[in-house]
Amino acid sequence: MKRLIIVCLLALAILSSGCTDEQNDTIDIPDDAVITHLTYGAFTLQSMAVQELVINSTTVNLSYYNYENELNVRYIKPIDDEIRSNLLELFRDNQFTEMDELYEPQEGQQIVVDTGNVEISLTWDGTTKTVKVDPYSHDYMPDKLREIDEALLKLKRYASSISEEDAEAKAEEWIMNAPTYSFDGSNLSLADHQYNDEEPEVHTLTYTFISSHGGYGNRSDQMVTQVITNHTVEIRLYNEIVETVIVDEVWNEMTQHMLDRTMEMRSEQMYCDQAPWKLWYAEGNINFLIEPTEEELAITYFSMVHEIEISDFSTLKLKDAMCQYSLKVKEKDAETMAELGWQEA
Description:
Elements: H1 2-24, E1 34-42, E2 50-55, E3 59-65, E4 71-78, H2 81-93, E5 102-103, E6 115-124, E7 127-133, H3 143-160, H4 164-177, H5 179-184, E8 185-196, E9 199-211, E10 229-238, E11 241-247, E12 251-252, E13 257-258, E14 262-266, E15 270-271, H6 276-282, H7 294-306, E16 310-317, E17 322-330, H8 334-339, E18 343-344
Parallel strand pairs: 5-7
Antiparallel strand pairs: 1-2, 1-6, 2-3, 3-4, 6-7, 8-9, 9-10, 10-11, 11-12, 12-13, 14-17, 14-18, 15-17, 16-17
Helix pairs in contact: 6-7
């Protein structure tokens, strides 16, 4: 009888060990698996409503669709074998196939809005594993999923980036067709080109050129002085989109207006915890993905509540928990700031 019990116990131990090994088995991800990163539902441009990144064995494909699922633009770039291999290894090491199918805010977590949803998928041999995050925020992801998402976002930026040569060609074409240069400009020359691997989609280029008359823009209906004038123009591109073009740090070539003069203003002394942007934030009028700095909070407060753009925000801490703040605003907003109790510094 005792021998029978021992045999049964050994059999149970062996079966139990086998079950444990089976439970620890993870689905193997083959080298030819296709990776997809899909975002939708965010508050964004109509032309970028749905963004789909697809990574196969040879290329990175990024497609932008509108709300009607009509394709607006597609970027295709080759992918390095080592980068793809490392990416698949990241999925394996982080046990992507074992993750939950949905991650949402947990009880007590702040809810973010207007970020839409993200779905990360692996497809191989007719099988698809999809993990969804609703809403799309790293705060709601486990660390291993966040690491995967960050790696895919880097490839997304790579896919939509343009080469150094293409950026320069785009910038030069834009400048030469713009009013200031096309009126009387010549000798366009590249002085500086800045970009980095962390933001391959952003290019900041500086050019020099000369005009045969003073002034900016199309001056065909103006009395102008015939004098050789040297100019410097800084143009910033995001992918192939021209974002800003500033001539001599004073002229906005995109809007054809002089840049607004800024004024430094200073608040009255107040208790640090009674600053209007802190009181506004405490009322729960806005949610941030991560806790904002005081400068970020003040910038958001003045923009959303008073429609005023501020810059160069700083805090002077005084005695007895008192603070005094300084910032810069456009000249046109100085009167409104004075009504709010701010004085010109």
